[in-house]
């Protein structure tokens, strides 16, 4: 047997994907040092912010690092744009060009202090559940003085995750300028509303409430 073949038999077969490799390398030396209150939100269709609080035992030299995997078909990547506190510790991450898949996204935050690894934090999140929608689009109001009525139309908000129009509900809030305390609130499942008995100048707000 040649030396090269013998050494080849001892080489580990790299069958683990990147997520398992990262998990295998996380060695927890100090319990109770993981981050707290981890949360993410997707906004403006393709932007996402994830934030967390440092642990109650964190020292000024503690540092955190975030890794995430949007779906099983994608690679794990580290944060490229950290949010920092006054001590320079990472307390969040900004993401761009985020797309929403139908399965859970995986998040891992680990770190170190005084040269030792701290406890890691893991979380799986359904991204479509954390999306903050844009306001309804192209709101149009057409009021007729003769009939004292207004017709209101709008289009559903832009979203990263494809949704049927029937998935949305809207609140139409009508406030009379002559009497600001007199507010009318209507919930609609369509993108059209007709206001009857329009007699005075009004302010109309439409909010998506799904």
What's the structural blueprint in terms of helices and strands?
Elements: H1 3-10, H2 18-25, E1 36-43, E2 47-53, E3 63-69, E4 77-78, E5 82-84, E6 90-95, E7 104-113, E8 116-117, E9 121-126, E10 137-144, E11 149-155, E12 170-176, E13 179-188, E14 192-195, E15 202-208
CA(first)-CA(last) distance: 68 Å
What's the number of extended β-strand segments?
Answer: 15
CATH fold name of the largest domain, please? Immunoglobulin-like
**Proportion of beta-strand residues:** 35-45%
CATH homologous superfamily of the largest domain, by name?
Immunoglobulins
Which CATH first-tier class of the largest domain would you pick? Mainly Beta
Can you tell me about this structure?
With 210 residues, this protein is mainly beta. The protein has two domains: 3-130, Sandwich (Immunoglobulin-like), CATH 2.60.40.10; 137-208, Immunoglobulins (Immunoglobulin-like, Sandwich), CATH 2.60.40.10. Helix content is 8%, strand content 45%. The strands form four sheets. Strands 3, 4, 7, 8 and 9 form a five-stranded antiparallel β-sheet that branches. A four-stranded antiparallel β-sheet has the order 1-2-6-5, with no helix packed on it. The longest helix is centred in the N-terminal third of the chain and has 8 residues, at 3-10. The termini are far apart. 17% of the residues are buried. The model is unreliable at 1-16 and 25-29 (pLDDT under 50).
């Amino acid at each position: 047997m040649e030396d090269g073949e013998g050494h080849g038999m001892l080489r580990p077969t790299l069958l683990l994907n990147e997520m398992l490799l990262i998990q295998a390398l996380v060695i927890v030396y100090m319990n109770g040092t993981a981050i707290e209150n981890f949360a993410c939100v997707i906004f403006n269709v393709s932007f996402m912010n994830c934030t967390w609080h440092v642990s109650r035992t964190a020292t000024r030299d503690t540092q955190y690092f975030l890794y995430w995997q949007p779906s099983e078909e994608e690679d794990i990547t580290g944060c490229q744009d950290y949010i920092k506190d006054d001590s320079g510790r990472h307390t969040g991450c900004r993401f761009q060009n985020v797309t929403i898949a139908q399965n859970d996204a995986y998040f891992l935050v680990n770190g170190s202090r005084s040269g030792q690894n701290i406890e890691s934090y893991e979380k799986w999140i359904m991204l479509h559940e954390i999306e903050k929608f844009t306001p309804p689009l192209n709101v149009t109001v057409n009021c007729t003085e003769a009939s004292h009525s207004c017709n209101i139309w709008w289009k559903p908000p832009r979203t990263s995750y494809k949704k049927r129009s029937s998935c949305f509900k809207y609140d139409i809030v009508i406030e009379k300028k002559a009497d600001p305390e007199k507010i009318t609130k209507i919930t609609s499942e369509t993108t059209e509303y007709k206001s009857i008995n329009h007699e005075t100048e009004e302010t109309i707000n439409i909010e998506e409430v799904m």
